[in-house]
Design brief:
Elements (H helix, E strand, L loop, with lengths): L1 H23 L1 H24 L23 H12 L1 H12 L6 H24 L4 H25 L5 H27 L7 H18 L1
Helix pairs in contact: 1-2, 1-5, 1-7, 1-8, 2-7, 3-6, 4-6, 4-7, 5-8
Length: 214
């Protein structure tokens, strides 16, 4: 999870934010980054109160909520997992709408972040007593949401100006950074595992290197 969080930070800071600043300007980019972060935090507060606060935890450090002790938590976890996949699809869709192929660094960053998210979240669901069918259904739905959001983003924002496209990319970046801080980093750094900081920086450095290469 530390590696995935580092990769996500690299993707947002190097790819999304710099691109948004170029298209939308520094002031608008900063504003939309903060709006995106606040938007995710508000949604996450509601999800946490519904039993989905620990949806990315593997269950060994901090257990996920189970249906016996927290009725309705399964639905909240499913909704939260699916919502977490939306901003990635929006970023890809906006790029396609403006005839710009998503860079390899963006695709690689999302991919490297999603693997540990899925592994940790699935382990936590399993230890909380959720069925394999539930786990596969939740992550299957999340995997479908990203391409669907990409298509919708491409259709809805095809006529958006470069400045608006940059602002929307910044909004998505703010959501992703807030998500990484609130749902990934707590798992990555629980009990301060050795070299956790170095592993996170490794994820960031790989994305930085990929971005520099092309």
């Amino acid at each position: 999870m530390g590696f995935g969080a580092g990769a996500l930070f690299g993707t947002v800071s190097i790819q999304l934010t710099l691109s948004a600043q170029r298209d939308a300007g520094t002031a608008r980019t900063t504003m939309f980054l903060l709006i995106g972060a606040l938007l995710f935090s508000l949604v996450n507060v509601w999800l946490a109160r519904s039993g989905a606060q620990n949806r990315k935890r593997c269950g060994e450090c901090v257990p996920q909520e189970n249906e016996r002790d927290r009725p309705g938590s399964g639905e909240a976890i499913a909704i939260g997992t699916i919502i977490d996949a939306l901003p990635e699809g929006l970023v890809l869709g906006i790029a396609v709408a403006h005839d710009v192929a998503p860079t390899f660094a963006i695709v690689a960053g999302f991919f490297l972040a999603n693997i540990p998210e899925a592994l940790s979240g699935s382990a936590g669901m399993y230890l909380a007593g959720r069925s394999k069918r539930y786990i596969l259904s939740v992550w299957g739905a999340a995997s479908v949401v990203t391409p669907v959001a990409s298509v919708l983003g491409a259709l809805l924002f095809a006529a958006a100006s470069p400045g608006m496209a940059g602002a929307l990319a910044a909004l998505s970046g703010g959501i992703l950074l807030s998500m990484a801080v609130e749902t990934m980093i707590p798992e990555a750094f629980d009990r301060a595992p050795l070299f956790s900081g170095a592993v996170a920086v490794l994820g960031f450095a790989i994305i930085a290197a990929v971005a520099a290469l092309g």
